[in-house]
Amino acid sequence: MNKFFGTGVAMVTPFQPDGQVDFDGLNNLIEHLIDGGVEYLVVLGTTGESATLSKEEKKKIFKFVEEKNNGRLPLVAGIGGNDTREVVELIKGFDSAGYDAILSVSPYYNKPTQEGIYQHYKAVAEASPLPVILYNVPGRTGSNIAPETTVRLANDFDNIIGIKEAAGNFDQFNQILRDMPEGFLFISGDDPVTLPLIAMGGAGLISVVGNALPRELSDMVRQCLAGDFKTARKAHFDLIEFTRLMFVEGNPAGVKSALKQLGICADILRLPLVQVSSATEQAIATEIKKIKA
Questions:
Q1: What is the separation of C-alpha 285 from the centre of its chain, rounded to a whole number of angstroms?
Q2: Residue ranges of the binding site
Q3: Alpha-carbon distance 228 to 230, whole Å?
Q4: Integer Cα distance of 116 and 121 in angstroms
Q5: How buried is 138 (Cβ within 10 angstroms: 0-12 exposed, 13-18 middle, 19+ buried)?
Q6: Would you list the domain boundaries of the chain?
Q7: Residues 99, 135, 256, 260: which is the catalytic one?
Q8: What percent of the chain shows pLDDT beyond 90?
Q9: For 95-142, what is each residue's pLDDT tens digit?
Q10: For this structure, is 164 an active site residue?
């Protein structure tokens, strides 16, 4: 699974002023990310506002990205939810041509027990024609995949190949990295902690910031993976304030503001998400100029 070492980008979904999907903007983003040197693309994760997209829109976006990418980078499809039966049906009906893995978020809102989470992913793994990457993001889902559950799933299912871990808990990270089987991928789900996680044995990250600054971020991650932490630390510190601004008024509002300023796509979101304030927009502009200087 070396194709998932390095930087994956959880792509935003650009929208037109009338709220429809902006496929021209999406094409601009694909080329921006490929030119920026990232290792793989993640389509329709939470950063892609998947919660407010219809099944038909998702199908069109998956197909569009596959066609425009044209085999240049590995692709990961975000397919998850809080109804196991529906997620299984979506996976079975997914046209996986051109895709290399599925990223599936832990069930949200229901607050399942650890056994419920295990059984959910068991059903996902048994249904999936592609390798599966778990996604733990308690800040969004309202529940946590315990380290023991992650390791249990990693040991029990050969096609569960890794986890995008965004619990923000280094004690949890330590336990997974210590106990996970050889070859299992520990992928950072939080841009700010990527450097220390790679130092501990992580495989890289799936990034929000990389939408806007793919070159700067992916270079830093490659430096970390090569063990050149002295060089990587400077890049890490240079990106700290920009990264903070990406999340200060929510994701993906911050990174869409940056993409607008970079001329990639508009900063339009679907309600209940809204654009960042003018003060944050100006602060993002200042940081972009500083980083690009």
A1: 23
A2: 47, 206
A3: 6
A4: 9
A5: middle
A6: 2-225
A7: 135
A8: 99
A9: 999 999 999 999 999 999 999 999 999 999 999 999 999 999 999 999
A10: yes
Q: Please give the CATH architecture assigned to the domain spanning 2-225.
A: Alpha-Beta Barrel (3.20)
Would you say the C-alpha torsion 149, 117, 103, 166 has a positive or negative sign? Answer: negative
* Residues 137/46, Cβ–Cβ less than 8 Å: yes
Q: For residue 263, how many other CB atoms are within 10 A of its CB?
A: 8
Each residue's pLDDT tens digit, 223-240: 999 999 999 999 999 999
> Which band of pLDDT confidence, cut at 50, 70 and 90, is reported for residue 1?
low
Sorted by sequence, the CB contacts under 8 Å of residue 147 that are 6+ apart come out as 172, 175, 176, 179
- 177 and 215 Cβ atoms separated by less than 8 Å: no
> What are the structure tokens assigned to 8, written together?
């994956």
Tell me which of 40, 99, 164, 260 is the catalytic residue: 164
- Whether 135 sits among the annotated catalytic residues: the reply is yes
Sequence ranges of the binding site for pyruvate: 47, 206
- 186 φ, ψ (degrees, to nearest 5): -100, 110
Percentages helix, strand, coil for the chain, rounded to the nearest 5?
50, 15, 35
> Using an 8 Å Cβ cutoff, are 257 and 275 in contact?
yes
